[in-house]
Amino acid sequence: MTIKEIKVKSALVKSRLPSVDYVVNCYVGCGFACSYCYASFMGRMVGRSVDEWGSYVYAKVNTPDLLKKELEKFKNKGKGKKILFSSVTDPFQAAESRYRLTQKCLSVLADFGFEGNVSILTKSPGVLKVVSLLKSIRNLQVGITVTAADDKISRYFEKFAPSASSRIKTLELLNRQGINTYAFVGPLLPHYADEVGNLESVFKSIYKAGTRDVYVEHINLSLYIKKRMINELKDTDKKFWDKFYLSQNNDYQKYLNKIILRLVKKYNLNLLYPDVIVHNRIKNKNIKRYFF
After folding, report:
1. Whole-structure pTM over 0.85, yes or no?
2. Which CATH number fits the domain that encloses residue 238?
3. Domain that holds residue 186
């Protein structure tokens, strides 16, 4: 793993993601190295190819100082605005233990008295280390990405990410602490159409953890993602890849949507986005402008 320090020009970056005004990405790259991750395109900003995803992390060491200055420009303490940590990296990956950039940024928001909405999305139990800080921020919600309830399945696609069971446990512990939570069920792994029981176990686990709000997203198989996954999973059975290609079919997605909506209703969950998200339909023409 290569870790480097860099400085950037801004902390708050305008976003075109649904219901999000600004994103804060304290790192370029992610040590979790998930094979399906769309954010691997970010490597081009630091001269890295998509095939190198998971082998580098660039820490934006001046982000907290920039955030402090940029918040001063907000009217009414940012009321009505929403900030997301993070859109193209994990804010609590291993590098956070060393640099604490996410923690420092959250402290800046707390000290400023930010009155907008703050959303955190992570796969890491590391977020539990800053629970007291989370409690000091108004209108905050912590999301945990859940792709499976079975550790064997999650480990297959998410080499170095925390296990599926630890993420469910993190949701449970956050809820016990009174932290507002949501689960991000995404990407939907292609085998779920054939193995509905495995998909149901995901939603059942979320429910049992005490979380009620969910986002759900179809897998993004853009060419650069497909290329990397084929390289990493080249010894996989052909039937596996047939399912992956099928996952981009509209009829397949509609079929899976029906299953999702049934499970959401069965477990009394609240789907935060009106439908299952199809990531490649969210257009960002200028990548650097919206994510860096």
Report:
1. yes
2. 3.80.30.30
3. 2-291
